[in-house]
Amino acid sequence: MTTIRIGAGAGFSGDRIEPAADLAARGKLDFLIFECLAERTIALAQLARIDDPAKGYDPLLETRLAAVLPACRRGGVRIVTNMGAANPLAAADLAGRVARRLGLSGLRIAAVTGDDVVAAVRGGGWRVEETGRPVAALGDALISANAYLGAGPIVAALDQGADIVITGRVADPALFLAPAIHSFGWAMDDWQRLGCGTLAGHLLECSAQITGGYFADPGYKDPPDLARLGFPIGEIDSDGGLTITKLAATGGEVSERTCKEQLLYEVHDPSAYLQPDVVADFSQVSIAQAGPDRVRIGGGNGRPRTGLLKVSLGLLDGWIGEGQISYAGPGAVERGRLAARIVEERLDLLGIACEERRAELIGVDAILGPAAAAPVPREVRMRFAARTATAEEAEAIGAEVEALYLCGPSGGGGVTRSARRIVAMVSTLIPAELAAPQIHLTEV
Amino acid sequence: MRLRELAHARTGDKGNVSNISVIAYRVEDFPRLAREVTAERVRACFPGLTIGEIVRYELPRLGALNFVLDGALGGGVTRSLALDAHGKCLGASVLDMEVSDA
Asked: CA of B57 to nearest chain A CA: how many angstroms apart?
C-alpha cells in the first residue's frame, strides 16, 4: 500500500514562516499545503484588486514561496495553496517571477479560477442564508461572491503536472483532499475515501492547532517549546487511513487530545460536515496514539455531496470606530465607567449617528458581559466601539476617547484609536454547475 | 469539583455561530460528562451574553461533547463590535462549571 506525506505550511494568512521552511527541508514530503484564506480575507482582497488590478492575492505569497521553493524543488515537493485569493492569475505570475529570481527552471505553475461567481449571483433568485432576503437586493453593497470550489480543479492541475497550484476560494479541506485523489486515483463518488481525505484535510488545515498550538493551559496541558512549534504532517494511505505526526526536534505535541480538539474545531454536526465534494461523517472517528508524536486516525466516512456550493458574499457594511483608554488604582472601575458615559453623551451632543454602540471595561466585562459579582481589578481599560455609516463618524469615536485625556476622569492614559471599513460576510447556496473552474498552466 | 479537572475545551466560530467542544481527559469519564454538562448548564456559564439555541452533539467514542451556540457572536465575526469577535475566549469559561465528584 502506498502512502503520501502532506505537510501543512500555514493555517492562516499571518502564520509563522519557519515551520514551513523546516517541513520543506526535512519533511520528506510529497505535498506542502498553505491555507491562508479566512472568510473575510477574500473580500478584503477583492477591495485591494479594485484599487490595483495587479493585486488581490495574499501579501505574504512572495515571502512564503521564497522560504520553501528551493527545498521543494530539490525534494520534489509540490505546493498547493489558496494564496491566490481574489487574483490567482496575478499570484501565479508572481510565483513565476520568484522562481526565476531563485534560479529555478522547469517549474509548472497552475492558477485555478472560477470561484468568482459575482455575476451569476447578481441575477437569479438566490437568497442570503442569514437573512432570507434576495441577493439581488444587496445592490452596490455586494463587492464579492466566491464559491467554495471542491478538489476537482486542483486534482486536474496536479494531473497535468503542476508543481505549484494556486487557487482562490476553495473549501479548505479540499486543498489536502486533492493531492490524495490525484495520488491514489480515488473516484469522485468513492464517498468513504473522500470522507477520509476530508477528515485529513480538516485536521491539518489549521497547521499548529493539531501540534500543540491553541492548546496550552499551564498546569493542565503543557506542550513543550511553543516558540518552536512544528507544523503537522499527515501520512495518508490509499485506503484513506491517516497518521498525524510532526518533525523531530520541534516544539509542541501530537497526541490524542490535540487531535480530538482539532477534530471538533469549527464543526457543528459531526456526522454531517458539508463539503463541495462529499458530506463527511466524523461521528465514528477513532483516535489512538501510535508512538511519540504519532497519532493514528480511523473511522472517517462520507455520503454523497449535496450538489450545492456555499458562496461567501462580501458586503460593504459601513465603518467601525474604536477608542481605548486605561485607568488604574482605587476607583479605576468607576472612572472607566464615567469615561464611557461621557463618550456616550458627547456622541449624542455631536449628533454622531451610530447603528450600534458598545462600551465595556477590558478586564471586567468585555468578553463575558456583565456579571453579578466580580473581583475589583487594579486596572481597567475602557473600550468604546461603534458602527457608523461614514469614515468621518467612525473617526469621531476614537477622537472622543482621545479627548478624555484632558476632558475626562482623572488618571486616564494610553489611548489607542482606530477606524476601519467593515466588509461583512454572509452566504448563499448555488448549484455547483454555476461555478466553472478553469486551470491556467504556465512553465518557467 | 470543577469541570476543568475532568475535561478540556476548544472554541471555534463560523459566521454568527460558536462551537465549544468539551473533551474528557479520560474516555471513561464520558458518562459523567454527558450527565452533568447539559446545554442548559452551558448556557448558564454565560449569564452576560445573549445566545440563541444551543445544540449538543455526543461523541462517546472520543469522550467528547460538542456544543453549537447559535447567535453567540454579536452578529458574526466580520461585523461584531466585540473585542473577541471570534468568541475564542468562551470555551474556557465552560471549564469553570461545578460538577459532582463521582
From this structure: 7
